[in-house]
Design goal:
Helix content: 25-40%
Oligomer: single chain
Distance between the termini: 39 Å
Number of helices: 9
Structural class: alpha+beta
Number of strands: 15
Bound molecules: (3R)-3-hydroxy-3-methyl-5-(phosphonooxy)pentanoic acid
CATH topology: Ribosomal Protein S5, domain 2
Radius of gyration: 19 Å
Number of domains: 1
Length: 348
């Protein structure tokens, strides 16, 4: 079990946590009825180093949360803070300030890194046990399912029916792997993943087939990851992605997250693969495209998709565990290698 670095609270009791988004290679899409975010399908994911959420939490008289400078409605986050108090057995109230280095709620897994950082920051501020990764993962899951995976670095699995994710390999497993994040559209997504999953489960005739097929995809992906075989992993990842979208297109009303630029990028990637470049795409509940590739091919892939991006593509390595960091101010949006020269992501 990896240990969590500790950062002592300052004189105001503030702590600072950082977590990275979890990009699903095999998708979590569908919740079991009852429970809070219990997955109907097993997912397998990689943690992205180049994107991050930084969260500072201080004990306070009242609960509050602001994300990227915008105060959030108290009712929305209250159940999560209550769960933290139940878990830690305390009555601490939390004043939380969170910054994403990338657009929020746009299909770039801000909820995964956001709730992983929030779970770690609040547990630390309340004096709870931040070394129990399983408990942190179970807590983060209650904010957002994919956040259970963002507690861990490297490659993670979250099994169907499980309350917490587990680490398969740490971030050193596959040093040559790169993920190009192509943000093709800047706005927020039209339907939350939570609503889209529930609508799919309740109305898509393809949903049961998706759940029945999911274990075979997971097994193939895990074997490909163990063998560090990018072509096999990329192939199964594309199948998982497209089958997930097929269930959404079958929902009533249908759910469509893609933009024209999404399709343009997919066609460029198909062309790159025909020419022998490693370029395997996935998308989530949003229009953005993420591409698995190698250190050798990453710049070429980023250049190729750049004309369809709203902001510069970002090239990421595999990220580490959610952690506590010394210094209690959230850092500015400053992460990631930007293809195309700029080292800052413009926000649209
Ligand atoms: O846990 P949520 O609500 O962020 O849903 C995540 C859903 C997908 O990103 C589409 C798939 C996944 O496994 O991350």
């Amino acid at each position: 079990m990896p240990s969590v670095p500790t950062a002592d609270p300052d004189s105001t009791g503030a702590v600072h946590a950082r977590a990275h988004p979890s990009l699903a290679l095999v998708k979590y899409w569908g919740k079991r009825p009852g429970g809070t975010n219990i997955p109907a399908t097993s997912s397998l994911a990689v943690t992205l180093d180049a994107l991050s959420t930084d969260t500072v939490c201080r004990p306070a008289d009242e609960d509050s949360l602001e994300i990227d400078g915008r105060p959030q409605p108290p009712g929305r986050i209250a159940p999560f803070f209550d769960r933290v108090r139940e878990t830690v057995r305390c009555d601490t109230r939390f004043a939380v300030s969170s910054r994403n280095s990338f657009p929020t709620a746009a299909g770039l897994a801000s909820s995964a890194s956001g709730f992983a950082a929030l779970a770690l920051a609040t547990v630390a501020a309340a004096g709870g046990d931040t070394t129990d990764r399983h408990a942190l993962s179970a807590l983060a899951r209650q904010g957002s399912g994919s956040a259970s995976r963002s507690v861990f670095g490297g490659f993670t699995a979250w099994d169907a029916g499980a309350t917490a994710a587990r680490q398969l390999h740490d971030e050193r497993w596959w040093p040559e792997l790169r993920i190009v994040v192509a943000p093709v559209h800047g706005g927020p997504k039209p339907v939350s993943s939570r609503d889209a999953m529930n609508l799919t489960r309740d109305s898509s005739p393809f949903y049961d087939a998706w759940v029945a097929d999911a274990p075979a995809l997971f097994q193939r992906a895990e074997a490909a990851l163990d063998a560090r075989d990018l072509e096999r992993l990329g192939t199964v990842m594309r199948e998982s992605t497209m089958r997930m979208f097929a269930t959404m297109l079958g929902a009533a009303p249908p759910i469509l997250y893609w933009r024209p630029q999404t399709i343009e990028v997919l066609q460029r990637l198909a062309e790159l693969r025909r020419r022998g470049t490693a370029a395997w795409e996935t998308m989530d509940a949003g229009p953005q495209v993420k591409i698995l590739t190698t250190a050798d091919d990453a710049d070429a892939v980023a250049r190729e998709v750049s004309p369809w991006c709203a902001t510069s593509p970002v090239i990421s390595t595999v990220g580490g565990d959610a952690c506590l960091v010394p210094g209690h101010e959230p850092r500015e949006r400053d992460t990631g290698k930007r293809a195309g020269g700029s080292d800052r992501m413009n926000h649209t």
